[in-house]
Amino acid sequence: MGDQGSGHEQAPAARREPTDAFAAEPADAGESVFHARGLTKVYRMGEVRVQALRGVDLDLYRGEFVVLLGPSGSGKSTLLNILGGLDVPTEGTVRYEDHDLTVLDDAALTRYRREHVGFVFQFYNLIPSLTARENVALVTEIAEHPLAPEEALRLVGLGERLDHFPAQLSGGEQQRVAIARAIAKRPDVLLCDEPTGALDVKTGIVVLEAIADVNRELGTTAVVITHNADIAQIADRVIRLMDGRIAGIERNAVKKAPRDLVW
Ligand SMILES: Nc1ncnc2c1ncn2[C@@H]1O[C@H](COP(=O)(O)OP(=O)(O)OP(=O)(O)O)[C@@H](O)[C@H]1O
Ligand SMILES: [Mg+2]
């Protein structure tokens, strides 16, 4: 952990830091769910060394809606994957609540993901031979306190599409099934890597509405990666990555509803 880490294990009142990374802490900064310090990630491909993250300090707070913006290659997916326990940093620490993710072995990381994290990716990865309801039920069968598949699908506006197969659904509807699947186990955090990347604008907005509804109604902490700066208006906070570093964090004084976006 870097030297900045020393003051952070204190009560929230003492957490305020004079660094840029904390300038845009929520006014009602609640509990820090994720607490990352000095994250670096180096990928080695034979002779080639790619530094994807170059020292990221970040706190994410319970229930907030964060948009992660930055150019291609800036490290957005790498950071999200580390927060979600799909990857580990080369250096630095990341804590989820009381768990130091950087000391967990593979089995413990898998348990962490299964119990706490919902993922949504650009491509929906639904099972073609199963209906919407069955795709969601795959997850709820192994979760401890799941939503009913019907309830999860209703939350994303698909209460009328329970028995449709993926091929009978539009791209936006398939993505909403993927969101229902991700939230059906009631994860604490929903990590979305370009969830609207494969969709047209109008469909993208419906998908963002679904994520915003989940954030509001279930209190799920949500992080959404996007290339589209306009989408930043729907977040509580906007985190900009540039070349593996945090280039800025802003808090939106007013948060827009996705349906009010114009782009
Ligand atoms: N598994 C990997 N092996 C080697 N290099 C990788 C790997 N994953 C990412 N990188 C490199 O790390 C850098 C950051 O990648 P990352 O995927 O985090 O960027 P990104 O901001 O998500 O970009 P995009 O917007 O294009 O998805 C890139 O230069 C990429 O080539
Ligand atoms: Mg990416």
Question: Notable features of this structure?
Answer:
Rossmann fold, binds magnesium ion, 263 residues, globular, 10 strands
Describe this protein's structure.
This protein is α/β, with parallel strands linked by helices. It has one domain (62-88, 99-260): P-loop containing nucleotide triphosphate hydrolases (Rossmann fold). Helix content is 25%, strand content 26%. The protein has helices at residues 76-83, 106-116, 132-140, 149-155, 171-183, 201-218; strands at 32-45, 48-61, 65-69, 91-96, 99-100, 117-120, 189-193, 221-226, 237-242, 245-251. The strands form two sheets. A six-stranded mixed β-sheet has the order 6-7-8-3-9-10, with helices on both faces. The chain is globular. It starts with 31 loop residues before the first strand and ends in a 12-residue tail after the last strand.
Topology diagram in text:
Layout: E1 32-45, E2 48-61, E3 65-69, H1 76-83, E4 91-96, E5 99-100, H2 106-116, E6 117-120, H3 132-140, H4 149-155, H5 171-183, E7 189-193, H6 201-218, E8 221-226, E9 237-242, E10 245-251
Parallel strand pairs: 3-8, 3-9, 6-7, 7-8
Antiparallel strand pairs: 1-2, 1-4, 4-5, 9-10
The structure holds adenosine-5'-triphosphate (ATP) and magnesium ion.
Q: Strand order, main sheet: write it out.
A: 6-7-8-3-9-10
CATH superfamily: P-loop containing nucleotide triphosphate hydrolases
Q: Specify the biggest β-sheet.
A: 6 strands, mixed
Q: Which cofactors or ions or other ligands sit in this model?
A: adenosine-5'-triphosphate, magnesium ion
Q: Helical proportion?
A: 25-40%
Task: Give the distance, in angstroms, between the N- and C-terminal Cα atoms.
Answer: 41 Å
Q: Give the overall pLDDT as a whole number.
A: 88
- What would you call the structural class? alpha/beta
| Number of helical elements | 6
Tally of individual domains:
1
Estimate what percentage of residues fall within beta strands.
25-35%
- Provide the low-confidence segments as ranges: 1-23
What general outline do the C-alpha atoms trace? globular
The number of distinct β-strands equals: 10
Order of helices and strands: EEEHEEHEHHHEHEEE
Task: Calculate Rg over CA atoms.
Answer: 18 Å
CATH class value: Alpha Beta
